[in-house]
Amino acid sequence: MTTKTTDLVERSVTILPEITKWRRHFHQFPELSFQEKATSETIVQILRSFDVYTIETEVGGYGVVATLTTGEGPVIGLRADMDALPIYEQTELSFGSKHPGVMHACGHDAHIAILLGGAKLLAEDAKNGLFKGTVKLIFQPAEENCDVLGETGAIKMLGSGTLDDVEAVLALHMCPWLKTGELQVHDGPSMANNDDFHLIVKGNGGHGGYPHHTNDPVWMSTYLLQALYSLNGRRVNPLEVGTISVGQIHAGEANNVIPSLVEIQGTVRSYKNEVRELLVKEIEGAARVVTALGGDFELTVHHGEPALVNDPAINNVIRKVADGMKVINEPFGMGSEDFSHMTARISGAMFFLGCGLEEERSLHHPRFDIDEEALSDGVAIIVKSVYQLLEA
């Protein structure tokens, strides 16, 4: 059966007011990672109104998986993340967050709305017998944070077994540095491995007026910091992608007391596993400068998301169905994305959807916002891609 896709762009534009209404609702009522109860309930209510989906709830937390089967064929997954960030909104939008200190500042409200728009069009086409196969809509909790086990929502949903039959999976991310009508796609590693490190530099503190009676960990840390920063340009091949950044330094409680401990925390980003392993090894080597100065250290590394690796064949489908849009073929940067856990197990790809306003509103910024005209672009691309993948 050949799927009819010629009117999907027009139909996506037609339902734009509905998609926009959904996006604005989710924007007003954001919920943090592992707390997306009301968000999940609203999603289920909307999905049930389409009257074709088998719906599973509480998948990996408050995750929702809606399945539509119209006959034998491949199983295609579409994923949207649901959680918000601990940010005080400063947009002055009429539909701004009603939960102080919580904001959809990364576009997840738009991701949900786009997937619901896709669900609506898929439901209409299924009732008209226009395609064969299975589509699973994956509304994922907790992309922005992990639990005490170090697991994000993607890990938990994969662990539930609900996605074991998915053969290809697709996701999008709102992109404020591109304009509406533009798309960013990249084959292979496209977002970074994400590792956090915590260094404790140990010395012997004492009176600030008698530093010669102490073994000053602050002094030792100045050498350690120089060693850490030198790793970026001297240990990693300049043709590879890898960087170390220090985000926190904590020491002492008084200006006339030399502390006994200094804590240094930061992040390590890379595209390749070899570089990931090298940087962690080099951090430990750099820390040994402390022992040469008479101190000691403890190093703890938490391994977060792996690099997002996009399947070139699925990207080619996205490029094909985005006919008429400007496609930029570049990596997405050194951010991380837990969709990478899914693409590590299932052939998949994420694309970045242009939605930029005249004044760019950066991701994770308290003034983040999007051009809502881009929502219909997202719906058309994901549904067209599903049909191409089902036929492939």
TrEMBL record:
Domain of life: Bacteria
Domain Peptidase M20 dimerisation: residue ranges: 196-287
Matching InterPro entries: Amidohydrolase, Bact_exopeptidase_dim_dom, Peptidase_M20, Peptidase_M20_dimer
Name of the protein in its database record: M20 family metallopeptidase
Source organism (scientific name): Halobacillus shinanisalinarum
